[in-house]
Amino acid sequence: MPLSNNQAKESDMKKLMLLVATVMSLSSIHGAEIKTEKSLSFYQDLSCFEITNIHSEDSFIRFAASEIITDLGKDVCSRVQSIESLEYGDEARSGEISAVQFGKLVESIHTLYTSEL
Predict the structure, then answer these.
(1) Does the pTM exceed 0.70?
(2) Closest-CA residue to 18 (of 72, 79, 98, 91)
(3) Can you list the positions of beta strands (E) in the chain?
(4) For residue 104, with 0-12 CB atoms within 10 Å meaning exposed, 13-18 middle and 19 or more buried, which class applies?
(5) Helix, strand or coil for residue 107?
């Protein structure tokens, strides 16, 4: 039986929150840090399509792309709210991942990446 829009949205949000929680708990276990090529704010300012480029020359972007696509699917970018919609105060629609949530996900992955694995 197919999921309703609300059930699908809840399922996506649960996956996203579980991924964030997992990344945060894994990163808290490790002490030493690895430096990324750029700052966290640089990566958070990238579009979903840029941060999920598995062919990027940037090792963090390749790592983040792998984590995001594995957990949220190849079509994740079609469900992420645009940054421009935030500027107009628009909320994420049903089935969308808000730009704020996606930014927090990138931050969590960055924390994991910069921790010694």
Answers:
(1) no
(2) 72
(3) none
(4) middle
(5) helix
Collect all residues with Cβ–Cβ distance below 8 Å to 23 and sequence separation of at least 6.
67, 105, 108, 109, 111, 112
Q: Is 17 in contact with 105 (CB distance < 8 Å)?
A: no
Q: What span, in angstroms and rounded, lies between the C-alpha atoms of 17 and 14? A: 5
Please, which residues have CB within 8 angstroms of residue 32's CB and are 6 or more apart in sequence?
A: 115, 116
Name which of 1, 117, 99 is nearest 51 in CA terms. Answer: 99
pLDDT in tens, 42-54: 999 899 999 999 9
